Structures are given as structure tokens and as C-alpha cells.
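Researcher: First entry.
Model:
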Amino acid sequence: MGYDGIEIGCASPHAWPDYLSPQRRLEIKRLLADHGLKVAAMLPAPGGGPGVNPSSPLKEERQFTIHHYKEVIRLAHEWECPTVIWVAGWVVFGTSQQDAWNYSLQGLTECARYARELGVTLVVEPTPADSNLVETADDALLLAEQAGETNVKVMFDTFHAFYRNEVPSDYVYRMKDKLHHIHLSDVDRLPPGRGNGNFTAVLQALKEIGYKGYLSMEVGFHTRKADPDWYAAESIRYLKRIMREIGWD
């Protein structure tokens, strides 16, 4: 289809670190090499197995989440993946917004220091459609700044920007100095170009800021009827055409 890399959600059964033997890890690494694919990023999937909420009021859950993130970071290192996504978590009823923020910040800082030794960058993603702690570009930038670690950057998903009725290209310009990764999806997790999103403006903005990272498609999981091959092929076909039109190789 023409993809350079693949993003891996670290849920079961695909890549939950605790379920991957050393042999299986090597098998997957060889499979990636055989197909000429890099691992663009890895996502410690919330809800993919035990609870993984870094802002949980439960100390035990926060500790497990940090353990899980470190396992994902080590797996990313083994598979030569440069990026792990930080989903800041969600505020549980009865926990103050500030306490939840501080819990997430503490976890992010600890994981970032661990990741730095392995050459991995953590990116904070605003996820308003799925959580209630980091919802905007400014939220993500603030958490990344407060972490105080050079390997903490930011990313965004066009789907979440659409969810807030915001303009994704605005996110590009707002985040440009720390923008390290991006998810592309039209409304309702459709392939870009199949909804009403303005992806020409998004790609033009990325070109203008000199973005060098991956354009990762996070599409298709809004329905059980999705055909993964069609979603992947349709997404890259459309975006390659837009890139040619704006002169972005």
C-alpha cells in the first residue's frame, strides 16, 4: 500500500508486553524487517487489559500504569520505535482535577526519565473524546512543559480536534515547536477525505512548519464492519494525492 511504518496499540492480543515472550518479540521484529516497516509509535492502550489510568486515585493502579508504560517503552526500544504516546488519563469522580493532573504529571516525568535512557520520546496527546484530563492543545503543551524533560513532546489527533469543533491546522501551528507525532482521521474515524475534514489545510500547515514525523492513520475502529485493508489503502491514497497537489514530497 505504500506505508513506511505502522503504529502499534499495546493491547491484548497484539502487543500487551506481559504476554509477549522474548521469542515472540523477535518474531515480530523480523516480520517488520521482512516487510520494510518501521514502528512509527506505540500506544499504551487504556482499557487494553487491566486498568491503566495514570491519574487514578488508586495508588495501586497508578503503580501498575507506570510499570506498563515502562514495559511499552522497553518494547519500543527493542523494535527501534522512536515514540510512545502518553494518554494522561481521566478524572475519576471524587478526585479533584488538580490531584488527577499532578498524578499524571508525576507518572509522565518518571516514565520520561526512563525513556530518555533508551532513546525514546514521549508525546502527550489531547484526547477529549475518550478522557477528561488533557483535552486541548494547550493542555498537552502545559503538561509536557511541566514535565521538564527534553524527550517529552506533544501530538494530536485530528479526530479529537473535530470532536471539539476545532480546526486541526490550528493545532499544527500552536504545537509546532513541540509537535512530534500526529494521528490523521476524519470525523467518525473515517479515512481522511471521507468526511468533511480539511486535510489539505492540515498537510499545508505541516509542510510550512517543516514537520518531519510520521503521518499515522488512526481510522476504522468506530464500527465492527470496518475492513482494515480498505481503510488503510483509502487513507494513504487520498493523502498522497493531497501531498502531490501541495508539492510536499
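Researcher: Second entry.
Model:
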Amino acid sequence: MTVERLLRIGLAVQLLGGALIALWLLPDGASWLAIPIALLVPLVGTGIVLAIEIAIGAAIDPRRPSLPLPQLIAVWWEETLISTRMFALAQLFAARFPEPALARDAARPAVLLVHGYMCNRAVWRRFLDSGELHDCNVATVNLEPIFGPIDRYADVVHDAIERLRAATGTRQVVLVAHSMGGLALRVYLRKYGAAAVSNAITLATPHAGTMMGSFGTGSNSQEMKPGSPFLQQLARDLAPEALQKFVCVGTRDDNLIVPRSSPFLPGARHVVFERVGHLALIEDPRAWDLLRNEIQESHARRVT
């Protein structure tokens, strides 16, 4: 099953369940309110889940210094809006958007975008539409099976890289990954080496795991628990020449990655953002600027 189909089923259950409960509770003559109430269920449900995640994160790994309450609410609200749009609209109905046409031109940077857990390529739509990568050859990928072991994604990433290289004539590509996608990059590098990669940029990737992995479904979620055998072996297998290519980006207000030091690989370059949540980081203009600059600088080093 694809994420697209799974989320459509989940949305249908939420809307139908919300409508039925509203009809049961509403007084006579107000049944028409069941529809707007049902439509609010995904937003309200997402907001509640994110508030719980933030509370768990604050209890396990308190932010120092703590964020003022108005700023914390702003982070929660932005993450709620973006998550609702991603999980109730974009990934369900816009996952098959056309990628920018590839030019057979090795002088253009080639970039592969890799999504995270329970997501698909639609999470990159706004970044691509922003024009930040208009002078790049860009491809996306869907990590499947959606609940399979992360090791299975090495071949998915490899196939996407080789298709991108063949279509553009470039020798190396820049890998950009969000969340679990960064672990998919690492299993690719372990299996295939770093010869085809000029740079690897990870956004909010749980390199050292996240406590939230305990609440997820599937082998991949369990492998993201801190101290899992998968993560321990992956840490031992990271070659020094591959580590030098990593730029690790994290946010001090991540609602999903706990502990908040987890996105940063020892020995890699680290970039820290504030006042932005886990999924919202993909759409943060500061992250877009960083990605654009890193991609251009990596390409400039490669061609000189």
C-alpha cells in the first residue's frame, strides 16, 4: 500500500467518524453543522497530537533556554497547519505532480530529494514551486514499502540516483533528505559508497534515534528508537569519507526528534534553526536559502 492510499483511507475515517459523532451529539435542527465539524476533525486532531508531542519532548529533553509561550504557540500552530495540509490534502491528492524537466547538462547541479517517515514526494512540492532550484536538475523519490526496514530503501535511493545521473550526464548528485530520509541516505552510502554523491544534507534526521519511534508503526519506526541495533550498526558503518560530505540541519523546537541533539552526526557540519517544527522545516525560507547555497557551493567545488 502507498502512503497516498493509506492517508486517503485515514482521512475518510476521520471525516465519517467526525460527522457521525456530530450528528449524534447535535440537537435537532442543527444537523447541518455535522459537515463543518467533520471538516475540522483533521485540523483539531493534528493539533492535539502535536501538542502531546511537544509536551513529551519538553519532559524528556527540555529546551534550554525555554521558548517564550507565545513563540511556542506560534511554532505549534505553524506545524499544525502544515501537517494538516500535508496529511489531509497534499500527500493524498498531489503526490503525482510532474517534476521539473531534466536537462542533459552536467554543468547544472543534480539534486535528489528524499522524504521521511509516513510521507511521499508531495512534501517537496512547495520547495520546488518556490523556484529556489530553478537552475538545478531535480528529482524526487517515494520510499516504499512504507513500513519496511530502512535497509530496503538503499536500492530505492540508488535507482533514483542512477536514473538522475543517466538523464543529466552528471557524475555526482547532491542528496537532500528530511527526517527518516536521512537514514535512507546512510544505508545507501553503506551499500553503494559515496562516489556518486557530492554532498548529503539532512533535515531533522534522527541520526541517533528519537523517542517518538516507539509510537510509530512498522520496522522503520522501531529502528529509529534510540539505541536500536539498526542505529548502532549504522553508526559503526559510516565511512569517514562519507561523513565529510554531510551537512546536518536540526531545529531546537523539533516536535518529533527527541533528544534534540539527534539530528547532528559527530564530525559533520551542523546548522541549527529555531522556532520551527519538524515538518515545517521543509518549508522554512531559511532552510530553502541554506539548501540552495549548499547545493551551489557543492557543485562549484565539484567542477573546479
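Model: Note on the second entry: The mean pLDDT is 94.
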